[in-house]
Amino acid sequence: MRGFLIRCSITAVAVILASYIIPGIEMQGLMAGMVAAIVLSFLNALIRPLLYLLSAPIILLSLGLFMIMINAFLLHVVDFFVKGFTVDGFWPAIGGAILISLVSAILNIFVSERGQVEMAMTNRPRKIRHIN
Fold first, then answer.
1. What range does the domain containing 67 cover?
2. Vertex 129: Cα angle to 127 and 132 (nearest 5)
3. Which residue of 6, 33, 108, 109 has the lowest C-beta tally within 10 Å?
């Protein structure tokens, strides 16, 4: 549950960022953005895997580009369900899907499956000193 809440927060950051950057994606207040992020997180967890499975041949033929179309469709579904969150057309949905996917992918790198924020650190190789 903790992992879902962290990923939902990451999606919220991505949705709010998309509403500021992409013309045509608008939210009327922070609460509308948060509700949109929660709805999008549930859709991503429940519906998106099924859509990916059903459209696997098209995804393979398009070399994965059809996944952007699925994400844009889910943004339109969020627009339908959340009052105060609007997506004004096809191209803003595509741009929002790309931006939300990129931001979510980058931020989700730091979250483990158990919902813990992790940071990988490497040790620098030490110089070997030979004593004669």
1. 2-108
2. 165
3. 109
pLDDT tens-place values along the chain, 132 residues long: 777 788 888 888 999 999 999 999 999 988 998 999 999 989 988 999 999 999 999 999 999 999 999 999 999 999 999 999 999 999 999 999 999 999 988 888 877 666 555 555 556 666 666 665
Q: Are 15 and 36 in contact (CB under 8 A)?
A: yes
Decide if 102 is inside a domain.
yes
CA–CA distance, 88 with 24 (Å, rounded to integer): 5
What is the C-alpha separation between 39 and 33, in angstroms, rounded?
A: 10
113 within some domain: no
Q: Residue 39 falls within a domain, yes or no?
A: yes
Answer for the pair 25, 92: CB distance below 8 angstroms, yes or no.
yes
